[in-house]
Amino acid sequence: MRAPMRIVFDLDGTLIDSAADIHHAASATLRAEGLSEVTLAQTRSFVGNGARVFVERLERAVAGSNIPERTERMRAVFAEEYRKAHGLTQVYPGVEEALAALKAQGWRIGLCTNKPMVPTRAVLKHFGWEDLFETVFAGDSLTRMKPEPEPLEAALEELGEGLCLFVGDSEVDAATAKAAGVPFALYTEGYRKNPVEALPHTEAFSDWAELPAIAARIAR
Ligand SMILES: O=C(O)COP(=O)(O)O
Ligand SMILES: [Mg+2]
């Protein structure tokens, strides 16, 4: 009998390009404080360590520092805006076909994102993906988030035993996989800040059509 296989995906910058919506939510948050706005490229560079860190980076970029009361107000506005922010989000080309192919190959599929659970569920619903993942760990599911290994380990545990693979786009994901001792497939078209070579990875891909073959190779 074939050993079970488990594959866990990151969300932002891996399955979906959500930067435009995050930028929109960030702009509303900054406007509410009378602060100047940031560019889409800046927004992209602030994504990766969850919503709390995102807001801190945003505030620091335009105001020079974090003032606790202001940071809290900004967090509240951002959370509200983020929940509604999926109209501009695009699924990367080939993602749905690749996930279907992986399922057909016998992979059990999970999600491990640093995005909080409320906007994560909202975006999954938006794309009709509520039942796509057998397990979902968000940035606020546990007390620790990526790059700590716990959420990835927890997602894998929920998927049972067997060979495993993590797929993500960023330095945070590469570090998480390394910390958990899990093979890592790097999607190169997401929000990473450094060259591909600088991120520890088992395999890298730029086209989702390549992933089923990569996974099959790792599973051999
Ligand atoms: O929301 C974030 O900061 C990052 O989200 P991700 O873990 O899905 O890339
Ligand atoms: Mg990501």
UniProtKB/TrEMBL annotation:
GO terms for molecular function: metal ion binding; phosphoglycolate phosphatase activity. It is an enzyme of class 3 (hydrolase). It catalyses: 2-phosphoglycolate + H2O = glycolate + phosphate. The keyword Magnesium applies. The keyword Hydrolase applies. Pathway: Organic acid metabolism; glycolate biosynthesis; glycolate from 2-phosphoglycolate: step 1/1. Keywords: Carbohydrate metabolism, Hydrolase, Magnesium, Metal-binding. The active site is at residue 10. Mg(2+) binds at residues 10, 12, 169. Its EC number is 3.1.3.18. Pfam families: Hydrolase. Its cofactor is Mg(2+). PANTHER family: PHOSPHOGLYCOLATE PHOSPHATASE. Specifically catalyzes the dephosphorylation of 2-phosphoglycolate. Is involved in the dissimilation of the intracellular 2-phosphoglycolate formed during the DNA repair of 3'-phosphoglycolate ends, a major class of DNA lesions induced by oxidative stress. This is Phosphoglycolate phosphatase. The gene is gph.
